[in-house]
Design brief:
Elements (H helix, E strand, L loop, with lengths): L1 H13 L1 H4 L6 H11 L3 H38 L3 H22 L5 H10 L4 H34 L18 H10 L3 H37 L1
Length: 224
């Protein structure tokens, strides 16, 4: 049964090649492509940014679910389930609360439709969500890894490397950044847009490192 969960995690890790990829160089987009395409490329980038977020969320939802299922199955197979049942339930609750209520897809097509029918107002809603989404994703990863590490230690699994370091720069005050954008006549807005454009690129290595460690630990145990 655990081999099935390992394969699911392998598949989720493999998907990184198509989902966790940098977009176009921001300055090339800002100073060249947005001009020579007469404003068309910003629209393309709108869909690319949201699509990248939604694909990441979908991939991680599958990954986290498989990690939890593997841990529960391992606990039952080794006879130690009773000692960690509360921790496993707490991990499930954390995952369900976050990925069913807080971290939700932005849906590029629907978002674009709302932008049109609200005469652009909905774009600020998208901006607000994009401004905080990667901080929410890294905060969940940190909490998940902390709880999983405790669980795995109890079950006798290796937890060295099962750590995620929060990047404080990803936590930005939307109102403050909006205010700064207005008083600098849009200059700070460019800085802000650059930050949102590159947020995932800064975090991908850490996400991938933890995923690789978890998969490596599972594979080693299955061989042993």
């Amino acid at each position: 049964m655990m081999l099935n969960e390992i394969q699911i995690i392998k598949d989720a890790v493999f998907q990184r090649k198509t989902t966790d990829r940098p977009l176009i160089n921001y300055w090339l987009y800002l100073f060249l492509l947005s001009w020579i395409t007469f404003g068309i490329y910003p629209l393309i980038l709108f869909f690319q940014r949201i699509g990248r977020i939604d694909k990441f969320i979908a991939r991680k939802r599958i990954y986290y679910g498989a990690v939890i299922d593997y841990t529960e199955t391992l606990a039952r197979s080794t006879g130690g389930y009773e000692s960690v049942a509360g921790e496993i339930q707490a991990l499930k609750d954390l995952f369900n609360m976050t990925y069913q209520r807080k971290i939700l897809p932005l849906n590029a097509g629907l978002s674009f439709f709302y932008v049109i029918i609200t005469f652009g107002i909905w774009n600020w809603v998208i901006c607000y969500r994009m401004n905080k989404i990667w901080d929410m994703l890294q905060s969940f990863e940190y909490a998940f890894d902390q709880q999983l590490s405790s669980l795995w230690q109890t079950l006798g699994l290796k937890t060295d490397g099962l750590t995620f370091n929060l990047v404080s720069a990803k936590k930005r005050n939307f109102a403050l950044y909006l205010f700064l954008s207005f008083i600098t006549l849009g200059i700070w807005g460019i800085v802000w847009d650059y930050k949102m454009h590159t947020d995932p690129d800064d975090l991908y290595p850490q996400f991938h490192q933890v995923e690789d460690h978890i998969l490596h630990t599972m594979e080693n145990r299955s061989v042993a």
